[in-house]
Amino acid sequence: MRFIKQLYLTGRFFGVFAAFVLLFGISFGFNWLFPLLQLLLVVAIVVFLFDLILLYNSSVKIGAKRTTQFVLSLGSQNDIIIEVENKSAYAFDCNLVDEIPVQFQMRNFTYDFNILSKDHKIITYQLRPTSRGVYSFGKIHVYIKSKLGLGMRRMTIDAELDIDVYPSIIEMKQFELRALPKILANTGLKKIRRIGQSYEFEQIKNYVAGDDFRNINWSATGRKSSLMVNQYEDEKSQPIYSLIDNSRSMLMPFNGLSLLDYAVNSSLVISNVALGKHDKAGLLTFSNKPNSGLRAEKGAKQLNRIILQLYNIIENPLEANYELMYVQLRNLIKSRSLIFLYTNFESRYALQRSLPVIRQIAASHLLVVVIFENTEIYKFLEKDAENVEGIYEQSIAQKFMDEKVQIATELQLAGIQTIITKPEDLTVNTVNKYLELKARGMI
Q1: Residue 272 in this model has a pLDDT that exceeds 70
Q2: Is the predicted pLDDT of residue 362 greater than 60, yes or no?
Q3: Span 169-179+183-190+235-439: which CATH code?
Protein backbone atom coordinates (compact mmCIF):
# COMPACT_ATOMS: atom_id res chain seq x y z
CA MET A 1 0.00 0.00 0.00
CA ARG A 2 2.88 2.37 0.81
CA PHE A 3 4.32 1.61 -2.63
CA ILE A 4 1.10 2.73 -4.30
CA LYS A 5 0.89 5.96 -2.25
CA GLN A 6 4.43 6.94 -3.22
CA LEU A 7 4.10 6.16 -6.94
CA TYR A 8 3.13 8.81 -9.51
CA LEU A 9 2.89 8.33 -13.25
CA THR A 10 4.51 11.03 -15.34
CA GLY A 11 3.36 12.78 -18.48
CA ARG A 12 5.94 10.77 -20.43
CA PHE A 13 4.28 7.51 -19.28
CA PHE A 14 0.85 8.63 -20.46
CA GLY A 15 2.31 9.96 -23.71
CA VAL A 16 4.04 6.66 -24.52
CA PHE A 17 1.04 4.45 -23.79
CA ALA A 18 -1.38 6.86 -25.49
CA ALA A 19 0.80 6.48 -28.60
CA PHE A 20 0.44 2.67 -28.28
CA VAL A 21 -3.35 2.96 -28.13
CA LEU A 22 -3.32 5.09 -31.28
CA LEU A 23 -0.95 2.74 -33.12
CA PHE A 24 -2.99 -0.35 -32.15
CA GLY A 25 -6.02 1.36 -33.63
CA ILE A 26 -4.14 2.02 -36.87
CA SER A 27 -2.91 -1.61 -36.95
CA PHE A 28 -6.43 -2.81 -37.78
CA GLY A 29 -5.71 -1.70 -41.32
CA PHE A 30 -2.15 -3.07 -41.39
CA ASN A 31 -1.89 -6.70 -40.23
CA TRP A 32 1.91 -6.71 -40.27
CA LEU A 33 2.00 -3.85 -37.74
CA PHE A 34 0.11 -5.65 -34.95
CA PRO A 35 2.82 -8.22 -33.95
CA LEU A 36 5.47 -5.49 -34.02
CA LEU A 37 3.41 -3.30 -31.69
CA GLN A 38 2.88 -6.24 -29.33
CA LEU A 39 6.63 -6.69 -29.10
CA LEU A 40 7.21 -2.98 -28.54
CA LEU A 41 4.53 -2.94 -25.84
CA VAL A 42 6.29 -5.75 -23.97
CA VAL A 43 9.56 -3.81 -24.23
CA ALA A 44 7.85 -0.66 -22.91
CA ILE A 45 6.41 -2.57 -19.93
CA VAL A 46 9.83 -4.06 -19.17
CA VAL A 47 11.40 -0.59 -19.36
CA PHE A 48 8.71 0.77 -17.00
CA LEU A 49 9.34 -2.06 -14.52
CA PHE A 50 13.08 -1.39 -14.74
CA ASP A 51 12.37 2.30 -14.06
CA LEU A 52 10.44 1.32 -10.92
CA ILE A 53 13.35 -0.87 -9.78
CA LEU A 54 15.68 2.14 -10.13
CA LEU A 55 13.33 4.24 -8.02
CA TYR A 56 12.45 1.70 -5.33
CA ASN A 57 15.58 -0.37 -4.77
CA SER A 58 17.04 -0.30 -1.27
CA SER A 59 20.10 1.74 -2.26
CA VAL A 60 17.98 4.83 -3.02
CA LYS A 61 18.54 7.24 -0.13
CA ILE A 62 17.48 10.87 -0.44
CA GLY A 63 17.70 13.17 2.58
CA ALA A 64 16.67 16.80 3.09
CA LYS A 65 17.21 19.33 5.86
CA ARG A 66 15.65 22.77 6.29
CA THR A 67 17.66 25.59 7.87
CA THR A 68 16.25 28.94 8.98
CA GLN A 69 17.26 31.75 11.26
CA PHE A 70 16.49 31.36 14.95
CA VAL A 71 13.47 33.65 14.47
CA LEU A 72 11.91 35.19 11.36
CA SER A 73 11.78 38.97 10.90
CA LEU A 74 8.46 40.72 10.41
CA GLY A 75 8.11 42.46 7.04
CA SER A 76 11.60 41.45 5.85
CA GLN A 77 12.75 38.87 3.33
CA ASN A 78 13.93 35.85 5.32
CA ASP A 79 16.17 33.21 3.73
CA ILE A 80 14.97 29.61 3.99
CA ILE A 81 17.66 27.07 3.05
CA ILE A 82 16.97 23.43 2.17
CA GLU A 83 19.88 21.04 1.63
CA VAL A 84 19.07 17.87 -0.34
CA GLU A 85 21.56 14.99 -0.24
CA ASN A 86 21.64 12.03 -2.64
CA LYS A 87 23.41 9.00 -1.13
CA SER A 88 22.33 6.75 -3.98
CA ALA A 89 24.39 5.36 -6.84
CA TYR A 90 22.14 7.02 -9.43
CA ALA A 91 21.41 10.55 -10.57
CA PHE A 92 17.80 11.75 -10.36
CA ASP A 93 15.63 14.55 -11.64
CA CYS A 94 13.88 15.99 -8.59
CA ASN A 95 10.93 18.18 -7.75
CA LEU A 96 10.90 19.59 -4.22
CA VAL A 97 7.76 20.68 -2.38
CA ASP A 98 8.09 22.34 1.01
CA GLU A 99 5.08 22.62 3.32
CA ILE A 100 5.19 26.37 3.93
CA PRO A 101 3.26 27.86 6.90
CA VAL A 102 -0.40 28.44 6.20
CA GLN A 103 -0.07 32.20 6.86
CA PHE A 104 1.67 32.64 3.49
CA GLN A 105 -1.10 30.92 1.50
CA MET A 106 1.50 29.57 -0.97
CA ARG A 107 0.09 26.33 -2.33
CA ASN A 108 2.07 26.14 -5.55
CA PHE A 109 5.66 26.35 -4.31
CA THR A 110 7.88 23.81 -6.11
CA TYR A 111 11.52 23.67 -7.16
CA ASP A 112 12.91 21.49 -9.98
CA PHE A 113 16.54 20.42 -10.01
CA ASN A 114 18.90 17.60 -10.96
CA ILE A 115 21.10 15.89 -8.41
CA LEU A 116 24.04 13.62 -9.19
CA SER A 117 25.06 10.47 -7.37
CA LYS A 118 26.72 11.07 -3.97
CA ASP A 119 26.05 14.78 -4.31
CA HIS A 120 24.06 17.45 -2.47
CA LYS A 121 22.05 20.45 -3.59
CA ILE A 122 21.34 23.67 -1.69
CA ILE A 123 18.05 25.41 -2.41
CA THR A 124 17.34 28.91 -1.09
CA TYR A 125 14.07 30.78 -1.19
CA GLN A 126 12.68 33.77 0.70
CA LEU A 127 9.57 34.38 2.78
CA ARG A 128 8.18 37.72 3.97
CA PRO A 129 5.91 37.27 7.02
CA THR A 130 3.35 40.02 7.53
CA SER A 131 2.15 39.23 11.04
CA ARG A 132 3.78 38.37 14.35
CA GLY A 133 3.25 34.97 15.96
CA VAL A 134 4.14 31.30 15.54
CA TYR A 135 4.57 29.90 12.02
CA SER A 136 4.57 26.12 11.47
CA PHE A 137 6.59 24.51 8.70
CA GLY A 138 5.57 20.99 7.68
CA LYS A 139 7.23 18.13 5.88
CA ILE A 140 9.58 18.27 2.90
CA HIS A 141 8.53 16.21 -0.12
CA VAL A 142 11.05 15.24 -2.80
CA TYR A 143 9.67 13.68 -5.98
CA ILE A 144 12.40 11.75 -7.81
CA LYS A 145 12.50 10.21 -11.25
CA SER A 146 15.23 8.51 -13.24
CA LYS A 147 16.40 9.48 -16.71
CA LEU A 148 13.77 7.11 -18.13
CA GLY A 149 11.12 9.34 -16.61
CA LEU A 150 8.13 6.99 -16.77
CA GLY A 151 7.47 6.85 -13.05
CA MET A 152 8.03 9.17 -10.12
CA ARG A 153 8.49 8.36 -6.45
CA ARG A 154 7.57 10.64 -3.58
CA MET A 155 9.96 10.67 -0.65
CA THR A 156 8.75 12.47 2.47
CA ILE A 157 11.16 13.85 5.08
CA ASP A 158 9.88 14.77 8.53
CA ALA A 159 11.01 18.37 9.02
CA GLU A 160 8.21 19.91 11.11
CA LEU A 161 9.30 23.18 12.66
CA ASP A 162 7.54 25.89 14.68
CA ILE A 163 9.28 29.26 14.47
CA ASP A 164 8.37 32.67 15.86
CA VAL A 165 8.06 35.81 13.77
CA TYR A 166 9.47 38.72 15.79
CA PRO A 167 9.84 42.43 14.96
CA SER A 168 12.38 42.72 12.18
CA ILE A 169 15.79 41.71 13.53
CA ILE A 170 17.13 42.00 9.97
CA GLU A 171 16.10 45.67 9.70
CA MET A 172 17.46 46.37 13.17
CA LYS A 173 20.91 45.05 12.23
CA GLN A 174 20.93 47.01 8.97
CA PHE A 175 20.32 50.32 10.75
CA GLU A 176 22.67 49.44 13.58
CA LEU A 177 25.64 50.01 11.26
CA ARG A 178 24.14 52.86 9.27
CA ALA A 179 23.68 54.99 12.37
CA LEU A 180 27.39 54.95 13.25
CA PRO A 181 28.87 58.44 12.72
CA LYS A 182 32.05 57.16 11.08
CA ILE A 183 30.16 55.48 8.25
CA LEU A 184 29.63 58.10 5.56
CA ALA A 185 27.79 56.20 2.86
CA ASN A 186 24.52 55.77 4.73
CA THR A 187 21.70 54.93 2.37
CA GLY A 188 18.73 57.06 3.37
CA LEU A 189 20.35 58.41 6.53
CA LYS A 190 21.23 62.10 6.53
CA LYS A 191 24.52 63.52 7.71
CA ILE A 192 23.43 66.17 10.22
CA ARG A 193 25.55 69.28 10.78
CA ARG A 194 26.00 69.93 14.48
CA ILE A 195 24.85 73.37 15.63
CA GLY A 196 25.43 72.57 19.30
CA GLN A 197 27.50 70.21 21.35
CA SER A 198 27.70 68.69 24.77
CA TYR A 199 30.26 69.69 27.35
CA GLU A 200 31.39 66.13 28.12
CA PHE A 201 35.10 66.21 27.33
CA GLU A 202 36.55 63.14 25.59
CA GLN A 203 40.12 63.82 24.40
CA ILE A 204 42.61 66.23 22.79
CA LYS A 205 43.48 65.34 19.22
CA ASN A 206 45.28 66.74 16.20
CA TYR A 207 43.32 69.26 14.15
CA VAL A 208 42.00 67.98 10.83
CA ALA A 209 40.06 69.80 8.14
CA GLY A 210 36.44 70.20 9.21
CA ASP A 211 37.05 70.47 12.96
CA ASP A 212 35.49 73.46 14.71
CA PHE A 213 38.26 76.07 15.15
CA ARG A 214 36.52 77.28 18.30
CA ASN A 215 37.60 74.06 20.00
CA ILE A 216 41.32 74.68 19.45
CA ASN A 217 43.28 74.05 22.65
CA TRP A 218 45.94 76.77 22.53
CA SER A 219 47.91 75.42 25.50
CA ALA A 220 48.26 72.00 23.91
CA THR A 221 48.99 73.64 20.55
CA GLY A 222 51.87 75.58 22.10
CA ARG A 223 53.39 72.43 23.60
CA LYS A 224 53.04 70.35 20.42
CA SER A 225 53.81 73.08 17.86
CA SER A 226 50.80 71.87 15.87
CA LEU A 227 47.12 72.63 16.08
CA MET A 228 45.33 70.57 18.74
CA VAL A 229 41.59 70.59 19.39
CA ASN A 230 39.36 69.47 22.20
CA GLN A 231 36.96 66.68 21.24
CA TYR A 232 33.64 66.28 23.00
CA GLU A 233 31.33 63.31 22.98
CA ASP A 234 27.56 63.13 22.83
CA GLU A 235 25.53 63.27 25.96
CA LYS A 236 24.76 59.74 27.14
CA SER A 237 22.15 58.01 29.26
CA GLN A 238 19.27 60.06 27.79
CA PRO A 239 15.89 58.26 28.08
CA ILE A 240 14.34 57.44 24.70
CA TYR A 241 10.77 56.08 24.68
CA SER A 242 8.63 54.58 21.93
CA LEU A 243 4.96 55.31 22.64
CA ILE A 244 2.84 53.11 20.38
CA ASP A 245 -0.86 53.48 19.73
CA ASN A 246 -2.21 49.96 19.10
CA SER A 247 -5.85 51.01 18.72
CA ARG A 248 -8.14 50.99 15.67
CA SER A 249 -6.41 53.88 13.89
CA MET A 250 -3.24 51.79 13.51
CA LEU A 251 -4.84 48.74 11.89
CA MET A 252 -4.82 50.04 8.29
CA PRO A 253 -2.78 47.71 6.03
CA PHE A 254 -0.15 48.90 3.56
CA ASN A 255 1.92 46.47 1.50
CA GLY A 256 0.81 43.58 3.70
CA LEU A 257 1.75 45.17 7.04
CA SER A 258 -0.51 47.17 9.34
CA LEU A 259 0.59 50.59 10.56
CA LEU A 260 1.04 49.01 13.99
CA ASP A 261 3.55 46.52 12.61
CA TYR A 262 5.47 49.30 10.87
CA ALA A 263 5.58 51.10 14.22
CA VAL A 264 6.73 47.92 15.97
CA ASN A 265 9.65 47.48 13.55
CA SER A 266 10.60 51.15 13.80
CA SER A 267 10.48 51.07 17.61
CA LEU A 268 12.87 48.13 17.69
CA VAL A 269 15.31 49.91 15.36
CA ILE A 270 15.25 53.23 17.23
CA SER A 271 15.65 51.43 20.57
CA ASN A 272 18.67 49.52 19.29
CA VAL A 273 20.25 52.67 17.81
CA ALA A 274 19.68 54.54 21.08
CA LEU A 275 21.23 51.75 23.12
CA GLY A 276 24.16 51.69 20.70
CA LYS A 277 24.72 55.39 21.45
CA HIS A 278 24.65 54.65 25.20
CA ASP A 279 21.20 56.14 25.72
CA LYS A 280 18.40 54.42 27.60
CA ALA A 281 15.50 52.87 25.71
CA GLY A 282 11.96 52.28 26.96
CA LEU A 283 8.55 51.35 25.61
CA LEU A 284 4.89 52.12 26.27
CA THR A 285 1.77 51.00 24.40
CA PHE A 286 -1.80 52.21 24.79
CA SER A 287 -5.27 51.78 23.32
CA ASN A 288 -8.64 52.19 25.05
CA LYS A 289 -6.94 51.25 28.33
CA PRO A 290 -3.39 51.38 29.69
CA ASN A 291 -1.11 48.62 28.52
CA SER A 292 2.18 47.39 29.87
CA GLY A 293 5.14 49.75 29.94
CA LEU A 294 8.89 49.28 30.11
CA ARG A 295 11.01 51.85 31.93
CA ALA A 296 14.03 53.12 29.97
CA GLU A 297 17.26 51.34 30.82
CA LYS A 298 20.57 50.44 29.20
CA GLY A 299 22.13 47.13 28.20
CA ALA A 300 21.58 44.10 25.98
CA LYS A 301 19.02 42.66 28.40
CA GLN A 302 16.89 45.76 27.91
CA LEU A 303 16.88 45.18 24.14
CA ASN A 304 15.70 41.60 24.70
CA ARG A 305 12.91 42.86 26.96
CA ILE A 306 11.85 45.39 24.31
CA ILE A 307 11.82 42.72 21.59
CA LEU A 308 9.67 40.44 23.72
CA GLN A 309 7.20 43.18 24.59
CA LEU A 310 6.93 44.32 20.95
CA TYR A 311 6.30 40.71 19.95
CA ASN A 312 3.38 40.47 22.37
CA ILE A 313 1.58 43.68 21.32
CA ILE A 314 -2.03 42.83 20.43
CA GLU A 315 -4.12 44.88 18.02
CA ASN A 316 -7.15 46.52 19.64
CA PRO A 317 -10.18 47.45 17.47
CA LEU A 318 -11.35 50.17 19.90
CA GLU A 319 -10.50 53.88 20.03
CA ALA A 320 -7.44 55.07 21.95
CA ASN A 321 -7.88 56.80 25.29
CA TYR A 322 -5.22 59.50 25.50
CA GLU A 323 -6.20 60.61 29.00
CA LEU A 324 -5.54 57.20 30.54
CA MET A 325 -2.34 56.95 28.51
CA TYR A 326 -1.14 60.25 29.97
CA VAL A 327 -1.75 59.04 33.52
CA GLN A 328 0.27 55.89 32.85
CA LEU A 329 3.03 57.89 31.14
CA ARG A 330 3.41 60.22 34.14
CA ASN A 331 3.67 57.23 36.48
CA LEU A 332 6.28 55.51 34.28
CA ILE A 333 8.47 58.41 33.09
CA LYS A 334 9.86 60.57 35.89
CA SER A 335 12.46 62.63 34.00
CA ARG A 336 12.55 64.61 30.77
CA SER A 337 12.77 62.17 27.86
CA LEU A 338 12.62 61.95 24.09
CA ILE A 339 9.30 60.32 23.20
CA PHE A 340 8.35 59.04 19.75
CA LEU A 341 4.55 58.84 19.60
CA TYR A 342 3.45 56.46 16.82
CA THR A 343 -0.18 57.19 16.00
CA ASN A 344 -2.40 58.12 13.08
CA PHE A 345 -4.90 60.97 12.74
CA GLU A 346 -7.12 60.77 9.68
CA SER A 347 -9.03 63.98 10.46
CA ARG A 348 -8.47 67.28 12.26
CA TYR A 349 -11.36 66.38 14.54
CA ALA A 350 -9.46 63.31 15.76
CA LEU A 351 -6.41 65.49 16.39
CA GLN A 352 -8.39 68.13 18.30
CA ARG A 353 -9.71 65.53 20.74
CA SER A 354 -6.17 64.38 21.57
CA LEU A 355 -4.27 67.66 21.22
CA PRO A 356 -4.67 68.82 24.87
CA VAL A 357 -2.99 65.64 26.11
CA ILE A 358 -0.28 65.86 23.44
CA ARG A 359 0.45 69.44 24.52
CA GLN A 360 0.80 68.32 28.13
CA ILE A 361 3.28 65.62 27.15
CA ALA A 362 5.27 68.10 25.03
CA ALA A 363 5.44 70.50 27.97
CA SER A 364 7.40 67.98 30.04
CA HIS A 365 9.25 66.02 27.37
CA LEU A 366 10.73 66.33 23.90
CA LEU A 367 7.86 64.83 21.93
CA VAL A 368 7.99 63.65 18.31
CA VAL A 369 4.60 62.74 16.84
CA VAL A 370 4.81 60.25 13.97
CA ILE A 371 1.82 60.15 11.61
CA PHE A 372 1.38 58.29 8.34
CA GLU A 373 0.59 59.29 4.79
CA ASN A 374 -2.07 57.26 3.03
CA THR A 375 -0.11 55.97 0.03
CA GLU A 376 -3.23 54.40 -1.49
CA ILE A 377 -4.69 57.90 -1.92
CA TYR A 378 -1.51 58.95 -3.76
CA LYS A 379 -1.94 56.03 -6.14
CA PHE A 380 -5.58 56.92 -6.67
CA LEU A 381 -4.75 60.56 -7.47
CA GLU A 382 -2.19 59.51 -10.09
CA LYS A 383 -4.97 57.99 -12.20
CA ASP A 384 -6.83 60.16 -14.69
CA ALA A 385 -10.49 60.78 -13.96
CA GLU A 386 -12.65 59.35 -16.77
CA ASN A 387 -16.03 60.82 -15.80
CA VAL A 388 -17.75 63.20 -13.39
CA GLU A 389 -17.87 60.54 -10.68
CA GLY A 390 -14.10 60.07 -11.01
CA ILE A 391 -13.52 63.82 -10.66
CA TYR A 392 -15.67 63.88 -7.53
CA GLU A 393 -13.77 60.93 -5.99
CA GLN A 394 -10.41 62.54 -6.72
CA SER A 395 -11.60 65.80 -5.12
CA ILE A 396 -12.48 63.91 -1.95
CA ALA A 397 -9.09 62.13 -2.03
CA GLN A 398 -7.29 65.47 -2.43
CA LYS A 399 -9.23 66.80 0.55
CA PHE A 400 -7.98 63.91 2.70
CA MET A 401 -4.39 64.59 1.62
CA ASP A 402 -4.68 68.30 2.38
CA GLU A 403 -6.19 67.53 5.79
CA LYS A 404 -3.21 65.30 6.64
CA VAL A 405 -0.85 68.20 5.82
CA GLN A 406 -2.98 70.53 7.98
CA ILE A 407 -2.72 68.06 10.87
CA ALA A 408 1.08 68.08 10.63
CA THR A 409 1.12 71.88 10.36
CA GLU A 410 -1.11 72.28 13.40
CA LEU A 411 1.19 70.06 15.47
CA GLN A 412 4.25 72.02 14.35
CA LEU A 413 2.57 75.35 15.17
CA ALA A 414 2.00 73.98 18.66
CA GLY A 415 5.78 73.55 18.96
CA ILE A 416 5.67 69.76 18.61
CA GLN A 417 8.21 67.90 16.48
CA THR A 418 6.32 66.06 13.73
CA ILE A 419 7.17 63.35 11.22
CA ILE A 420 4.71 62.71 8.40
CA THR A 421 5.91 59.70 6.47
CA LYS A 422 5.00 56.91 4.12
CA PRO A 423 4.74 53.61 6.02
CA GLU A 424 7.69 52.07 4.16
CA ASP A 425 9.89 55.10 5.00
CA LEU A 426 8.97 55.17 8.68
CA THR A 427 12.15 53.63 10.09
CA VAL A 428 14.65 55.73 8.15
CA ASN A 429 12.74 58.96 8.90
CA THR A 430 12.53 58.12 12.60
CA VAL A 431 16.25 57.33 12.84
CA ASN A 432 17.03 60.56 10.95
CA LYS A 433 14.97 62.55 13.43
CA TYR A 434 16.70 60.91 16.40
CA LEU A 435 20.16 61.62 14.95
CA GLU A 436 19.13 65.20 14.16
CA LEU A 437 17.88 65.87 17.68
CA LYS A 438 21.00 64.22 19.08
CA ALA A 439 23.26 66.36 16.88
CA ARG A 440 21.45 69.55 17.83
CA GLY A 441 21.90 68.83 21.51
CA MET A 442 18.16 68.84 22.18
CA ILE A 443 18.36 65.65 24.24
Answers
A1: yes
A2: yes
A3: 3.40.50.410
